[in-house]
Design a protein that fits this description.
The strands form two sheets. Strands 2-1-3 form a three-stranded mixed beta sheet. Strands 4-5-6 form a three-stranded antiparallel beta sheet, with no helix packed on it. By secondary structure, it is mostly helical. The protein is built from 13 helices and six strands. The radius of gyration is 32 Å and the shape is extended. Helix 4 (105-111) crosses helix 5, helix 7 packs across helix 8 and helix 12 packs antiparallel against helix 13 (226-236). Strand 5 and strand 6 form a beta hairpin. The chain has a domain at 3-72. The longest helix has 21 residues, at 52-72.
Length: 277
């Protein structure tokens, strides 16, 4: 039975409608190509149906309209950088896209002294309502450009700062952990991530020794993991050098991990006087 004959058939009871709708779902792929333009015609949709056929026609119309609506609607993806209490614009790069978020100035004020100084520059103010209102208005017009920061690591810091703990993972891959350490050092917010360090560092001994993950030296330095830092530093001593252009090298291959902790590489006897031309 084709769709046209299905729609124009007389149905004596509503149990047949259920079977008809099941068939329509199977025929839906070819429906728009083969259905005659006037096969469904209801002169007065608002009036009470006089027959099972008219009821069926109404339901078919609703079904078709619903299918077309679902086909034409593009699903919207929520911007994870827009927080409910946001009053400051933030520019970020996330999943290779430029996004504009809304973050809370109060959350950033408590999370990082760097963000605090940007939002509330230190100056002597009088404790008057007019001055306070002026500062609040100025903060609302500010924009923080974090587009050069790693999006995943930045989102993690912001979720913690906005108390969205459910979105903070208990395990982090090496690249995310490394970029998180960069941001924690940049924004001076080690206290913000302190409660999660035990879980994030659970395999630090093994992970820090894997070739190609020399960034653990920086991770251990930022997060105060002295044992890991010392062990990895001693392991890298025989393998590290500097080429003629000043690039750090390990086993004649360029290190992926930059920057290095302050003072770890320099003109010290510990590293020798290596040079590769």
């Amino acid at each position: 039975m084709n769709e046209t004959s299905l729609i124009n058939s007389e149905y004596k009871n509503f149990s047949d409608l259920e079977n008809a709708f099941n068939q329509i779902h199977f025929l839906n792929s070819s429906y728009h190509q083969h259905l005659p333009p006037h096969s469904i015609h209801i002169t007065n949709p608002s009036s009470q149906p006089q027959s099972a056929t008219q009821v069926f026609h109404l339901k078919v119309c609703s079904l078709i309209m619903g299918l077309e609506t679902r086909e034409n609607v593009t699903p919207t993806v929520k911007n994870p950088f827009i927080f409910d209490t946001g009053n400051v614009r933030i520019l970020v790069t996330y999943s290779n896209e430029q996004l504009v978020g809304k973050v809370s100035s109060d959350a950033l004020f408590l999370a990082s002294p760097v963000w605090k100084k940007f939002l509330f520059p230190p100056w002597v103010i009088q404790n008057t309502s007019d001055v306070v209102s002026e500062i609040a208005a100025e903060v609302g017009t500010k924009e923080i450009d974090c587009s050069e920061d790693d999006g995943e690591a930045l989102l993690m810091l912001l979720n913690i700062a906005h108390l969205n703990f459910a979105a903070v993972p208990s395990k982090l891959p090496y690249n995310t952990l490394f970029h998180l350490a960069l941001l924690v050092d940049q924004y001076q917010c080690i206290k913000l991530v302190q409660p999660w360090l035990k879980e994030w560092m659970i395999n630090e001994g093994r992970e820090s020794r894997l070739h190609g993950q020399e960034g653990w030296l920086f991770i251990a330095w930022v997060f105060g993991r002295e044992d890991v830092f010392e062990a990895l530093a001693m392991k890298l001593v025989p393998c590290l050098g500097i080429d003629s252009k000043g690039n750090f090298m390990r086993d004649l291959a360029y290190l992926r991990a930059e920057p290095m902790p302050d003072g770890i590489i320099g003109k010290y006897p510990l590293f020798g006087d290596w040079s590769f031309d």
